Amino acid sequence: MKIKFLTTLACSTLATAAQAQSSVTLYGTLDTAVGYVSNLPKANGGTGAAFQMINGTLSANSWGLKGTEDLGGGLSAVFRLENGFLLSNGALNNNGREFGRVATVGLASVPFGTVTVGRQFDPIVDFVEPLTEDAVFGSAFATPGDLDNYDESLGVNNAVKYVSPNYSGLQWEGMYALGGVAGSASSGQTYALAVAYGKGPLNLAAGYFHANFGNDFVLTSSGVSLAPGASAPTTDNPYFSSINRGLFSAKSMSMIRAAATYQLGLFHLGSAYSNVEYGEGPLSANTHFNNATLYVNYKPVPTTTLGIGYDFTKGDGGAQTDATYNQVGLGADYSFSRSTDVYTLVAYQKASGRTANGTGGSMAATASIGSYGLDAGKDSQTMVLLGMRHQF
After folding, report:
1. b/e burial code for range 102-128 (CB count within 10 A of at least 16 → b)
2. Structure confidence by residue, pLDDT tens digits, 156-205
3. Which of 29, 54, 65, 166 has a beta carbon 3.0–4.6 Å from 59's, enabling a disulfide?
């Protein structure tokens, strides 16, 4: 009886220890707002204002599973599956992918860093974005048309990513995504590198990103889509606003991004810069967009955050593109708890100059705030949002 009892106790102890070495976490975010948007095109011509339900303003609507298994010696197996959806109607986001935001598996080592493979965000999203106003007030403060992936509009498929350990505040990350095209190693490939440093009140980050598209996209009446018979590039289609849709034939897209923040008492100060280049294509010239952002957040009490931001974007694409965009944003957020908050946002954008029209010519620049894809029919746009977010 004693031997049987001890055997049972030992097996139970071992099972409990094995369970403690593995964990799976369910998490997610629900975020939606009622919004007023001005100067939207009307079906019968002209423009008008509209009241809409707008999804994922502060954070993308998502749910996911992430897990780890301790393999011993400081090594762990890790995985993450994250689904994106529209809270307004329950539809899948990210082109209908089941786990359209993230789908990775990898190995994590305490002394050597982490390697993951699958669909994931690039190093600039991981390191630079947390230092921008997007991390606090989301899409309404993003770059016009989200030209520089300020609001993580672009995911990367077939990607291998390495994240270094943190060396006293310094950390770096690299990624390479395989195009998978027979006979052409560079076709469709994506690569990126970023570095971050944080110590005390100061945080800095910078990175470089390059995506090879070939001539894989075509312009249709409903927007830009993959050309018939073309191999999909590893980076998602970036042409979802009037600001860059006319550059759909570009062979590549490259960007440099940097950001800095400083905590000064109750004030959080931030700045960011980006340069985005669309390579020359059959129907568009080589085009650059330079963007500069400044913002200040103030936290008078622990439950309330107030913010103001200014964004300046300038295009340069020869005779096709000389557009300028000025955008101002105001935000206020109140937290009921660590999981639930309500917010209000106001953004205004003014466009001037001309931008590529997709047929080799140019057209008058029109406004398009943030990453919403709600193109104005005129050179200005105002957006007012009142929303709620719950995280679990």
Report:
1. bbbebebeeeebbbbbbbbbbbbbbbb
2. 999 999 999 999 999 999 999 999 887 787 889 999 999 999 999 999 99
3. 29
